[in-house]
Amino acid sequence: MFIPLGFVQRSVLISLGKMAYYTNQGELWATDGMGEGETLIFFHGIGGGASAYGWSKVYPAFAGDYRVLAPDLIGWGRSDRLEQNYLPADYIAMLIEFIEKTCQAPVTIIASSLTGAFAIRAAVKRPDLFRSLILTLPSGIKDFRQYYSNSFFAQIASVPILDRVLYAGQVSSFGIRDFFERVFAQPNRLSPEIVEAFVQSAQQPNAEYAALSFLQGSSSFDLSEYIPRLTTPTIFIWGNQAKFTGPDVGRRLANLNPQAIQAFIELENVGLNPELEVPEVIIGLIRKFLPVLAQ
């Protein structure tokens, strides 16, 4: 696993198991990682090989000014990986309990893709925990009743034995490299380190359970049903070349609640993973909007 310089691994026990997380600690920052300063939490997205590494090119930039936490969700990375089907309620509980166990609320959450959608639902359920949300491509995957679970991959992922064959192919070095080359707007932005980090995470024992739950559609839901109830100040950031869930879906979601979703930023020539493809741009946007959302 890859841990940025100046960060250490810690863990916290929640109802679903032990969650690993990474925080700024030591001589570089003159902090023990458990201070009461303003906190930024970076929650990674969902998909084969996902882990806190997904934000590792972004969150170190904030270590000098904020207490930074970057957890591996249960089922991913170095956190406990349970032999179960992972449902939206499980992820929403993870986010809420992690905040309660590690922070003096409210806090700012930066999250990506399906986890960004979970963050919206968590903020609807417990608005007292959330100061603001900065989200890249937040989507419930089944938005506006367009059910991903009817797709070919979802059907294969639901067949015993075939599901493991599908997973093994997806999480090989070739499979992960091929996936990112297809979803990055510019494949030359893909580094060997990104591939290796995702391969290492995907090949942890029992890592297939959370990934297959995602492929089967068990973790997905219709985010459009929840956005109208959101009250937390929020920013959406979307790559205009994003596959699967394009910016048209993002704008349609944002338009459901313009009072809470205060800006929709569309990035040209950027794909499904802006935080990995153009981390320097995401750092700049986070810095720009943190004071705006705090007003």
Description:
- An eight-stranded mixed β-sheet has the order 1-2-4-3-5-6-7-8, sandwiched between helices.
- The chain has ten helices and eight strands.
- Helix 2 links the parallel strand 5 and strand 6.
- Mean pLDDT is 90; it is low at 152-163.
- By secondary structure, the chain is of the alpha/beta class.
- The longest helix is centred in the N-terminal third of the chain and has 15 residues, at 88-102.
- Helix 1 packs across helix 2 (113-125) and helix 5 (173-183) crosses helix 6.
- The radius of gyration is 18 Å and the shape is globular.
Order of helices and strands: EEEEHEHEHHHHHEHEHH
Q: What is the SS-derived class?
A: alpha/beta
Q: What is the spatial order of strands in the main beta sheet?
A: 1-2-4-3-5-6-7-8
Strand content bin: 15-25%
- Give the overall silhouette: globular
Uncertain segments are 152-163
